[in-house]
């Protein structure tokens, strides 16, 4: 498991490099190898075409990241992980944040119920 889903408004597509953002956030998560299993990581971005921000009078934009984790990590580990991840996101958008109205957010969702997984990617990293 961990899964990172980044939703971003379509008005950002031409102003930032989303594939580079995906690389950066993936690298950030993988730098915590004792917390994040490499074979379970899934990172993706979803462009939002239909959205409305605030009162709709400006060309506002947003990026919202949701990190989904299975249970079992300490509160300290989750905090360090999310602090680093959010810093990476903020750094990626720092120049753009100075030029336009932009909201950045990160949410952590920890599964409390069992998850169902079937994944042989882990075996590649256990050699």
Put the structure in a nutshell.
Helix content is 32%, strand content 25%. With 127 residues, it is α/β, with parallel strands linked by helices.
Blueprint (SSEs and pairs):
Blueprint: E1 3-9, H1 18-30, E2 42-48, E3 61-69, H2 75-92, H3 94-99, E4 102-110, H4 122-125
Parallel strand pairs: 1-2, 3-4
Antiparallel strand pairs: 1-3
Helix pairs in contact: 1-2
Account of the 3D structure:
- By secondary structure, this protein is an alpha/beta fold.
- 32% of the residues lie in helices and 25% in strands.
- It has a four-stranded mixed beta sheet with strand order 2-1-3-4, covered by helices on one side.
- β1, α1 (18-30) and β2 (42-48) form a beta-alpha-beta unit.
- The longest helix has 18 residues, at 75-92.
- The chain is elongated and about 50 Å long.
- It starts with a strand and ends with a helix.
- The model has no long low-confidence stretch (mean pLDDT 94).
Could you estimate the helical fraction of the residues in percent?
A: 25-40%
How is the biggest beta sheet arranged? 4 strands, mixed
What is the tally of beta strands?
4
Summed over residues and divided by their number, the pLDDT gives a mean of 94
Strand order of the largest sheet: 2-1-3-4
Q: Tell me the distance between the termini.
A: 20 Å
Choose one word for the global shape: elongated
Order of helices and strands: EHEEHHEH
Computed structural class? alpha/beta
Low-confidence stretches: none
β-strand percent reads 25-35%
Instruction: Compute the number of helices.
Output: 4
Computed CA radius of gyration, to the nearest angstrom: 16 Å
